[in-house]
Amino acid sequence: MRAAIAGDAAAYRRFLEAVTPRLRALARRGCQRSGAPEAEAEDIVQEALLAIHLKRSTWDSARPIGPWISTIVRNKLIDTLRRRGHRISVPIDDVIETLEAAPQSDPLERQDVERLLAGLNPNQQAVVRAISIDGRSVRDTAARLGMAEGTIRVTLHRALKALAAIYRRGDEG
Q1: What does the H/E/C string look like for 47-81?
Q2: Comparing C-alpha atoms, which of 104, 157, 105, 102 is closest to residue 127?
Q3: Are 15 and 79 in contact (CB under 8 A)?
Q4: Structure confidence by residue, pLDDT tens digits, 91-141
Q5: C-alpha atoms less than 13 angstroms from C-alpha of 128 in its C-beta half-sphere
Q6: How far apart, in whole angstroms, are the C-alpha atoms of residue 156 and residue 130?
Q7: pLDDT single digits (tens) 1-17
Q8: Shortest CA distance to 124 belongs to which of 93, 149, 159, 89?
């Protein structure tokens, strides 16, 4: 690919011929995992080859090309599935073992959180509690606190920066 980007047409042809079987394998594997018909794989390969051609200048030659190509194939698979309106259905019994257990409350952790939050002003505390602890959205937090969404984002950013500084001071002391 490096030679191809430098203008070597023969090297580019060799690169495309060498990479096509890998693209095909990635596309087939992606179709199998997603439940899509394997016949879709060849369309994905063609779209990936076109994307590689059009986007070859975006590849960072200091990095391995494999992950770049894999990302293109994955994105083309997703595009294909979206166009076809493909929905993936996974029975809960198939994934139940991988689901995260409910977090256990740790009283010491709660004390640490409260100690850190005490170093913030009341607005910052309210925003951090709502978004980071209670899991509320920026929109919901803005409505609850009577603030603009942009103000919530700025307050959260500044609060998190302040918390990091408070935490670092605690580690040093």
Answers
A1: HHHHHHHHHHHHCCCCCCHHHHHHHHHHHHHHHHH
A2: 157
A3: no
A4: 666 556 655 555 555 666 777 788 888 999 999 999 999 988 888 888 999
A5: 20
A6: 10
A7: 888 888 888 988 999 99
A8: 159
Sign of the CA dihedral 156, 160, 161, 166?
positive
Class level of CATH domain 107-172: mainly alpha
Please state the domain extents for the chain. 2-83, 107-172
Q: In this structure, which amino acid lies at residue 34?
A: S
Q: Is the dihedral of CA 89, 92, 98, 102 positive or negative?
A: positive
Distances (CA, A) of 149 to 98, 120, 144: 35, 19, 11
Distance CA 53, CA 51 (A): 5
Residue 158: both structure tokens together = 């500044």
| CATH number of the 2-83 domain | 1.10.1740.10
Q: List the structure tokens of 127.
A: 């925003």
